[in-house]
Fold these 4 entries.
Entry 1:
Amino acid sequence: MYLKIKRIIDIILSMIGMIVLSPILVLLTLAIKLDSKGPVLFKQKRVGVNKTHFNILKFRTMRINTPNDTPTHLLENPDQYITKMGKFLRKTSLDELPQIWNIFVGQMSIIGPRPALWNQFDLIAERDKYGANDVPPGLTGWAQINGRDELPIEIKAKLDGEYVEKIGIGMDVKCFFGTIVSVVKSDGVVEGGTGTTGKNEIASTKERVTK
């Protein structure tokens, strides 16, 4: 029942977002075009609800010669591929704004597990253990406010499972406002890295999600 209500909320908020944020979207479009050659938007095949595939939309943050379908953390010296504008967009998470359209058309939700790349088979398999592939992926989620890029795959999947277990209006509100705080503080943003949280922090997170 809640998923139906959640979908209605997604439609309303994404429609409002496209209207209210349109001036910012136009400015970012111009800035990207002036900064480097290539398209404004970047499309990438991701895993949606029930492991279906869809093309996620982002503002392009990397040069057009970047290897396709390779997570940033697996690139050798990823900084050489990220544009000047791209660094700003990634740090502020503004590169994710075009996903408002993905949300509007029903491919994503505002809150949910971040959609995995189609070839991130290890993450997809881990999420299967917790039913995290059975709900719509989100613009942000529980894992994003508890470590973001820093989390190892097994911890990220457990957090996604915790979200599925506790899914509801209270959990979504907590994720929404937690995301705002994380973005302002740039928590967990690691260019070219993943699973780099300190050992003590990982242990603390692991202990919490397994309770």
Entry 2:
Amino acid sequence: MTSGIKPRERKSRGGPRAGATPIGLRFPADLLAVLDAYIARERPGASRPEVLRAIFREWAVSRDLIPADSSPAALELEDLNAENDG
């Protein structure tokens, strides 16, 4: 006999696990509302942490704090190795 409840599908998380340090943030309600509105409009389905990482990376690149191609996702397949895991 089944209960008719479907098992919850696992959602892929958009964040790096290896080589990343977790940080906790508390957002005031006004900033959280802006973040959620941005996600709904510009990046539907993305998680808050995923979007915050992307926004921060864009900010850092725009100020030449990191190179534009510093994201591991920007690496070519043949350039992937154990050194750039994470």
Entry 3:
Amino acid sequence: MEMTIEQGAKLRIEKRPPTQKEYQSLRSQYNWYTLENQFTKAAFGKEVYSVVVLDGPNVIGMGRVVGDGAIYFTIQDIIVHPNYNNKSVSRLIMGQIEAYFETIASRHAYIGLVATSETREFYEKYGFTERKTKNYEMFKILMR
């Protein structure tokens, strides 16, 4: 699938996980810590759905969905190269992910994600709301 954005650039979507090099390159644009290749190698290819967006030969965005493929899903790693922010690339990625959910997810599937204060409004446009329950949302990040 192709899409034209500002200044005539043609973007292409591929339904596949990024390579380790593509993933690390996108992460490095935000000065995020580098993940060891042994872990990205173990993780990628096990997602239930993923897309990359290319401008020519260069991956400029990506999105992954992990989960059981039917009831529980988590949207992970929506990353867009900073040069393409505010150019509809995130919407393109989310549109592909939403289409995937329409075809595969059960009627009452739970779809989660972690938003930042900067991305909360974006995800609200797709029906995501802050979860307010009596339960405590908890998480842990290993810092070795």
Entry 4:
Amino acid sequence: MNPVEVVTNRTRAVRTAVLRVSAAPLVVRAGIFGTVLAGLLLAYPAQALTARPLAAFVLVSLLPAVGPRRVWPTFAALVTVGGWLLATEGYGRPIALWRLLAVAVALYLAHSLCALAALLPYDAVVDPELVVRWLTRAGGVLLASAVLGVLLVEVSDVGADRGFLALTVVGLLVAVVLSALLGWLLRRS
């Protein structure tokens, strides 16, 4: 094959793939882009939000939307956490519970949507109920986590000296119980 035929064949393949794209996988990938970008904007300090970093944030948000099966979701989560650390440690921004919960929600939703997008080919015909059920389940996890997190923060404020110790012990107990529950569910099925 000569180079012109190779380019022509690849162009036809790309055109065919673009014409076969369905709406549901694109909506899920747009959701990934939006949640990653929202997490980045919430995590980073306002002083760092200039034109060049915003362009980088758009690129970092686009990568997991395009390649949810690759390393890009982890990369985007690490960049978001790095922004949170930069804002709190580097710029001295006080830790606000609402912002912490919002960043955690964005990270979890991006992770969950990447898991869904990794299962959906671009040309998949998907019943909208599947996406709604997936998001409902994720919303339930987020609601339970937010309620538990707020309760644990309130418990930690009771004793100033021992608050963080109590919070750590409760967190470890929750992790052990959840691990045992997941192990039991895996053996059961």
